[in-house]
Amino acid sequence: MRITFLGTGTSHGVPMIGCDCSTCLSADPRDSRLRPSIYVETTGARVLVDAGPDLRTQALRHRISRVDAILFTHGHADHILGMDDVRRFNALMRGPMPCYGDAATLEDIRRMFSYVFDPATPKGGGLPLLELREIDGPLQIADLTAVPVPLYHGHRPILGFRFGACAYLTDCNRIPDASWPLLDGLDVLVLDALRVRPHPTHFSLDEAVATAERIGARRTFFTHMCHDLQHAATDARLPAGMALAYDGLVLQIP
Length: 254
Prior knowledge:
By secondary structure, the chain is an alpha/beta fold. Helices cover 19% and strands 27% of the residues. It has helices spanning 55-61, 77-80, 86-93, 103-112, 114-117, 205-215, 231-235; strands at residues 2-7, 37-41, 46-49, 69-71, 97-101, 130-134, 139-141, 144-153, 156-163, 166-169, 188-192, 219-223, 242-244, 250-252. The strands form two sheets. The protein has a seven-stranded mixed sheet with strand order 6-5-4-3-2-1-14. α1 links the parallel β3 and β4 (69-71). It is globular and about 55 Å long. The N and C termini lie close together (7 Å).
């Protein structure tokens, strides 16, 4: 299994509009972060996790021409605003796009993209063809098994996903008791780490490190990072086996 980080930034992205901090002006390409998403590839499956407003840029940058399904962690704008770009994948794949999420996320998509599902929408210009499917347990997409991992993003229940020996847990600040067993025996953990200061809906860096130590994966990569975390300086002080992810990072998962 191969996982590509399409974006590792926050809802604002990095650099932020109108900011001249050292991270936003950095020449290190690892400090340039699009909105959060990953692309999962196996022998038989090509799957996106989240489809944010940078989807077109991400697909062009990584030459993505096939998507068999999209898994959604939750329905915030930085995770679903790329849905109109699914039209191109409809054409390439010659069919509707299966879109998996919890009930609240699917309702967010229906509300934000109401014109897509309204029979009265005038034809012309094209509409994305979306098949919304509620997640009620592990999913099988060709040879890829995706196990939903319930999380909390502030007070909102959302989903992470486990793919074999890898778990992707973005936009979270609490793991409920029932989800910890789903994270046993990981080779790779990808975990939210917004910034150094505490935040009401995201793990801070120290909280993320402590959570990663409890989970005990062989390798941990942090994502959904704002401009407070400059890549090189932050990486240098992380514990062994932990690192910041960056846009374009590719992981091979056994």
